[in-house]
Amino acid sequence: LTLKPRPREGRIHYTLDGRAPSPSSPAYEAPLTLESTATVEARLFDERGRARGEPWERTFSRVECEGGGIE
User: Do the beta carbons of residue 44 and residue 25 sit within 8 Å?
Assistant: First the structure.
């Protein structure tokens, strides 16, 4: 999962358990690999830890492939 940060506006912090992110949540630094179904919440925070804009939330579901997978 790749997020598109706006470095001039702050840092993206995220959670994978559906809870609201805070400045103490992990900071997004590289694409995330989701091994199972997860709810990702992300929010932009400025250098003082103030939330910028609205939070973003999406649930990604793991889907099992039948017949040997994808090549």
Answer: no
